[in-house]
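Can anyone check this?
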Amino acid sequence: MAGINAKFDKEYLDKGIDELAKAPVEALKGLSEGDAQKLKDALNIKTVKDLGTNKFFLWAQSVSKLAE
């Protein structure tokens, strides 16, 4: 779990997996509020779970894996 929590801003270090999934995308290290707003506007992505289950990201990940 520590490896996953390390991908989030420090205020999320002690959160459980359910809380991390519900966290806003800007909770991820390296994503700003501006980035989050762009994801929301373009793809209606608001939470980490939304980002991780977005069909476009999943499709791109599948193609990338198959190309390895």
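Reply from J.R.: I decoded it. Helices lie at 2-5, 17-22, 33-43, 48-52, 55-67.
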